[in-house]
Predict the structure.
Amino acid sequence: MTADKALESILGHERAATLRAALDRMIPGDDYPSACGAGVDAYLARQLAGDLADKVDTYGAGLNGLNSDAEIRFGRDFAGLTPEQQDDVLETFQGGSGAQFVGMLAAHAAEGYYGDPGNCGNRDCAAWAMVGFDQRWTVGEGEADS
Amino acid sequence: MSEYDAIVIGAGAAGGIVACVLAEAGRRVLLLERGRPYDYADIPRDHLRNHRLPLYGQGMGPDRQGNPRVIVEPDGTVRTLDSPHLGGYHNNAAGVGGGTRVYGAQAWRFLETDFRMASTYGVPQGSSLADWPIGYADLEPFYERAEWEIGCSGDGAANAFQGPRRRGYPMPPVVMNPGGAALKAGADRLGWNTFPVPLLINTAEYNGRPACARCNLCVGFACPSESKNGTHNTVIPRAVATENCTLVTRAMAERIDTDPRGNVTGVTYLTEEDGSIRRHTVRAKTVVASAGAIESARLLLNSASPIHPNGLGNANDLVGRNLQGHYYPTAHGFMPEPVNDNLGPGVSIATCQHSHGNPGVIGGAMLANDFIETPIFFWRSALPPGAPKWGQANKRWMRENYRRWVEVKGPVQEIPNPESRVTVDPSVRDRFGLPVARLSGTAHPETLRTAEYIREKAVEWLSAAGAENIWSREMTLRLSADQHQAGTCRMGRDPQTSVVDPWGRVHGHDNLFVVDGSIHVTNGGFNPVLTIMALAFRSGEHIARL
């Protein structure tokens, strides 16, 4: 199953889109990929079906919270906002009832992005190229792409 | 008739050595290990599941299922931790080699004063601080044995504070890296003596295995070139090669058996075969518990009998008390230029300038830089409080700082607290139905005071080295044990105040020994493994003479 479909089957279509948009604000793209550009959505899809299965409800509630704040403030769902509006919603949510959720989202995004590609994120070891971590000892030749 | 001369429980740092010394002396040894044997490929290079950062699991045992522990928090909250990788479990790796399979391999001799803490500093109220019944000189020949037989690199002449040594190290020290060089310059400015960190890592071919390949996943992981020396690739193969030692893995000691008169007769251990549990009772002349400070105490307590209703060696309610480890005050700094060269191990420079003689506090700590760490470890530990945890600012911070990061940290010599302890839980059982370890209490407040003093010294060192944006986290009072766990069956001459005699023999028994970190009276201001190994060589030789 692709990461998109796996996330959708766990969280539903709308929340999966919200999650991908929020992850890409946790780690935005520049000359190195964004969170989802490096596979962090695939990382979370696998974790929410495994080690983080007990966090599915927390994710559902947090993502609903982001969407309802987005609707109230900008009249659109979170994924439909501009990056600046998304950051605004995230910061406001973090300053209120969503502090724990946004903290968790940031931590999980970092795990997927900076962890090893064997966990489905950090595609092509892009994050390690960015920070300057030598990939050789973690991934054998070719493993980074699998 | 006994089937074995000795049964050694636990194939870690101590047990592997005791088994080897006995087997090479011609004794028939059964070495029991609850974990599995591991090949290099069995221990994953997973950055989220390793013994340095066990976020969702770890590379070695104990198994995730069926090995809970119970933790009593300082506020009285009781938690059952279902898996050994969880924070607060105070795990030490289980498997052949134990923690030595995945450790950082820092190989410290304690200082002479470390064996005389009570007479040097007095005994603070509420602590059980005591001198060791043996001194540095008693252990010196065995430190040397550990350094040469396990295989240690270092500069034997460079530490101005060390006790006398007959011999240097068999291998030269690790190469100084850029972060270490910056710290060296800083220490020179401060007038502090520094020297390369001694490591049980090959810097040249030794014992038939190559020099360190300088990979960047050292502490918490298995070694790709088998250049990190543990008991799994030295003394345990030697023991097995004698054909006098039988190693049985996935074997959980249920109890140390005693006869109706209370004398130790052997061990009953459990294995799982085809989903069912099989019980094996084996007789031996001598039994040695080397399961680590938490599990050795648990085993003695779980071996109660009508003659020993409170557990073996526990007539005076001492088994499991004085649990200690190391507070690690840590300072983070960032050099103006990149200093992380991605070449392991990374830990390269240390000072014993603040191990003792610190005004107003008891003891101190060795301070050193640290291993090359993974980027996710860096994200979780080095990000200053209040810094953005997400967004472009966080990404930029990661990009700009990973290779500029320098850490200074040190293991604080803890002041034992008898209320920091291991008991066995009255209701929670493991997969074999055995009562699990229950950990309660906290470190002594004096430990916290020393840790705060040392934290300031770590900051001072980084500052003198020219680091920027230095920060460190304040220490709080909590239980301390983890992989440096020690003290639960302390050594002494008086059975009223100690569990084992100066050889590790349990008071009141002729043939029951504890040999591991449990018997440390105090745990030094150092990584304790070389002391555990030296004690194991010493006790092993003693038992072989019996």
Observations:
- The radius of gyration of chain B is 22 Å.
- Residues 3-545 of chain B form a domain with the FAD/NAD(P)-binding domain fold (CATH 3.50.50.60).
- The first helix of chain B runs from residue 13 to 24.
